[in-house]
Amino acid sequence: MVTLGACGSESTARNDVDTLTITDARTRPTSPGVDVAAVYLDVTSPNDDTITAVSTPTDVAAKVTMHQAMTADGDGMGAMPGMDHSTEGDMAAMDALTSVSLSPDTTVSFEPGGMHLIVENLTYPLEDGDTFEITLTFAVAGQRTVTVDVTNDI
Ligand SMILES: [Cu+2]
């Protein structure tokens, strides 16, 4: 008889992925006159879940949206270094996402050239070394707030 879930050593080894984690939340300093910023981070959920909304405190920015950078034709050309929302022209190549699905223990990366969060109508310029909070809302896990580091080291 096969008994699933009875293996103690395996469950111990997997304990550290049993909670939802959000790591490496980061964004670049803003250029003069620019009030939008692309935020990158990694999300790992222990369950099927969905990111349904993203927000910042209103003293940081008016709103946050989720985007998917469009690639040429799905040929794996993922890295598009210029796509950092520093000009309005870049916005034309973005698809807004209303939700992002998460599979168990699979890290979903918001990263340059891929999915990213856009913080819009920033109330002040972001400088290297600044931090601010961002809150992700999950269908299952509820709300999680993380600190975004403003850094040139993306
Ligand atoms: Cu975008």
Q: Can you tag this structure with a few keywords?
A:
single chain; 154 residues; Immunoglobulin-like; 10 strands; 43% strand; binds copper (II) ion
Instruction: Give the CA-CA distance, first to last residue.
Output: 51 Å
Structural class of the helix and strand makeup?
A: mainly beta
Radius of gyration over alpha carbons? 17 Å
| Oligomerization status of the protein chains | single chain
CATH class: Mainly Beta
- Give the name of the CATH architecture: Sandwich
β-strand percent reads 35-45%
Topology-level CATH name: Immunoglobulin-like
Q: So what's the overall shape?
A: globular
Task: Give the structure's gist in a few sentences.
The chain is mainly beta and 154 residues long. It has one domain (16-148): PCu(A)C copper chaperone (Immunoglobulin-like). The protein is 6% helix and 43% strand.
Q: What does this protein structure show overall?
A:
By secondary structure, the chain is mostly beta strands. It has a single domain, classed as PCu(A)C copper chaperone (Immunoglobulin-like). The protein is 6% helix and 43% strand. Strand 9 (131-138) and strand 10 (142-150) form a beta hairpin. It is globular and about 40 Å long. The model is unreliable at 11-17 and 72-83 (pLDDT under 50). The structure holds copper (II) ion (CU). Copper (II) ion binds next to strand 8.
Blueprint (SSEs and pairs):
Layout lengths: L7 H6 L7 E7 L9 E8 L4 E7 L5 E9 L18 H4 L2 E4 L2 E3 L5 E3 L4 E8 L8 E8 L3 E9 L4
Parallel strand pairs: 1-10
Antiparallel strand pairs: 1-2, 2-7, 2-8, 3-6, 3-9, 4-5, 4-8, 9-10
Bound molecules: copper (II) ion.
